[in-house]
Amino acid sequence: xxxxxxxxxxxxxxxxxxxxxxxxxxxxxxxxxxxxxxxxxxxxxxxxxxxxxxxxxxxxxxxxxxxxxxxxxxxxxxxxxxxxxxxxxxxxxxxxxxxxxxxxxxxxxxxxxxxxxxxxxxxxxxxxxxxxxxxxxxxxxxxxxxxxxxxxxxxxxxx
Length: 159
Prior knowledge:
Blueprint (H helix, E strand, L loop, with lengths): L1 E11 L15 E3 L4 E5 L3 H8 L1 E2 L3 E10 L15 E6 L5 E6 L8 E10 L2 H6 L4 E8 L4 E2 L2 H12 L3
Parallel strand pairs: 3-6
Antiparallel strand pairs: 1-2, 1-3, 1-5, 4-5, 6-7, 7-8, 8-9, 9-10
C-alpha cells in the first residue's frame, strides 16, 4: 500500500543572520511544499521520514491520502517533479525524483536517485549512494552531469 503525502515547507529567515549564540530570531515564512508517493511505510513511519524541524527550516505533513498507481496524473501537475520514497523492511529509504515533463530541448526525461540508511539520514542529507540518469530525445542516456553537458554541446553543433 502507498500513500500520497502533501507537505508544508517553512524557512526561518531570522536564522540567516544568526551567529549561533543565544536565542535564534524567529521569522518563519511558508515556502510551499512537496508531494510524495511513499511506499512500504505506516503512517507513523511516514511521519519519521518527512517531518523535521531545526532553527533554520521545517517540513511537516499537511495531508495524506491513498495512492492509486493508475492515476499518476492526478498526483502531480505536468510541470512538477514526481517524488517517490520507498521504505525497505530494514528501514532504509530509496528516494527517486523524476521529471514531470520535458525540461529542456533535447532532453526527454531525468531521474535522480538517493539511498539513505535511515529516515534521520535523509533529513540530514547523509545519503549512502546517489545516481542520475538523463534520457535524451535521440536515445542517448547520460549517467552523470558531465556526460549530460557534453551531449547538450553535441546537440548545438550544426548537422
